[in-house]
Design goal:
By secondary structure, this protein is α/β, with parallel strands linked by helices. It folds into two domains: 71 residues, no CATH class; 216 residues, Aldehyde Dehydrogenase, Chain A, domain 2 (3-Layer(aba) Sandwich), CATH 3.40.309. The protein is 31% helix and 14% strand. It is built from nine helices and ten strands. An eight-stranded mixed sheet has the order 5-6-7-4-3-8-9-10, sandwiched between helices. A two-stranded parallel ribbon has the order 1-2. The longest helix is centred in the middle third of the chain and has 17 residues.
Length: 323
């Protein structure tokens, strides 16, 4: 409905109808027909890795010139927290990054890595903060977490959480209120896992995975994150600038956020794009144009002054709309 309304406004503003079209429908029908049509000179796609590979194969099979293809397939986005970080600030940014928009942003936090000296305190505060989240109709001001996109998404999330309950340690799971019994609502939850349990596929919803690490284990944890093949957003919480630079140098990502949340790239200020994708060694012949620009944003690693709002405290939260 939003796309229909946006296109109607663009047509009213003067964009010719023969230039801008909106074709809605299933990817297997509408999308596949468009990708296969020789008149299509370029494709931009946002969605799953599997669908991106399907599009890439279809474009590679077309005769003639190579067709530019831009694919944004989400991320296994991590936040790395060292022992110098401020637990209250970390938790506030984790709640925003992991659960705002019901965790349905490609930039949402999926993996929280805590140095062991700070881990128990952060987990304790995180569980308390999650308890305060309100699930419900997103049109209401008091709602923090709305529904996920559809029943299939809810089912996939439930399957993953069922697996986590058998193999991981629960941190906290919110209970759905009675007025959310009908609909595609999914309660935010968090689990403690080992690096070997990092999901290979993006878990697109309000599910957070927490890893505890010793300082000497940081390299192996970063290697495990890199091994997922994703590189969209990265969060770092620390009061040691050398630590932030060391983490950044080991992970190839498009957007790095230091001492702030990981969502809300500012349009016109921060270029938004990622690096890498899963199954890189299995790509068919063809060409993919990848956005590889890198940007970073940081905020102070000290609490805001009394009475100050977080928006005006952050250096990175001025101008433009958030994406």
């Amino acid at each position: 409905m939003i796309a229909v309304r946006a296109v109607a406004l663009l047509h009213r503003a003067g964009v010719p109808t023969e230039v801008l079209h909106l074709a809605t429908g299933a990817g297997e029908t509408i999308g596949a027909a468009l990708v296969a049509d020789p008149r299509i000179a370029g494709v931009a796609f946002t969605g799953s890795v599997e669908t991106a590979h399907s599009i890439q194969r279809a474009l590679a099979a077309r005769p003639g010139p190579i067709v530019p293809f831009i694919a944004e397939t989400g991320g296994q986005n991590a936040m790395i927290v060292d022992s110098s970080a401020l637990p209250e600030q970390v938790v506030l940014d984790v709640i925003t990054s992991a659960f705002q928009s019901a965790g349905q942003r490609c930039s949402s936090l999926r993996l929280l890595c805590l140095q062991q000296e700070i881990g128990p305190r952060v987990v304790e505060l995180l569980a308390q903060a999650m308890r305060e989240l309100r699930i419900g109709d997103p049109a209401r001001r008091e709602t923090d977490v709305g529904p996920v996109i559809d029943a299939n998404a809810k089912r996939a999330l439930q399957d993953h959480v069922d697996l986590m309950r058998r193999t991981a340690r629960p941190v906290f799971q919110l209970e759905l209120p009675s007025d959310c019994a009908n609909g595609d609502f999914f309660a935010p939850c968090a689990f403690e896992i080992e690096p070997a349990q990092i999901p290979r596929n993006e878990v697109f919803g309000p599910v957070l995975h927490v890893i505890h690490y010793r300082r000497q284990e940081l390299g192996s944890v970063l290697a495990a994150i890199s091994g997922t093949g994703y590189g969209l957003t990265l969060g770092i919480h620390t009061r040691v600038s050398r630590f932030a630079e060391d983490v950044r140098s080991h992970l190839r990502v498009g957007n790095t956020y230091v001492n702030r949340n990981m969502i809300g790239a500012v349009v016109g200020v921060q270029p938004f794009g990622g690096e890498g994708c899963r199954e890189r060694d299995r790509k068919p012949a063809g060409r993919v144009i990848c956005t590889a620009s890198r940007s970073s944003a940081s905020a102070p690693s000290t609490p805001p002054p009394p009475g100050a709002t977080r928006a005006c405290w952050r250096r990175s939260s001025s101008r433009g709309r958030s994406a």
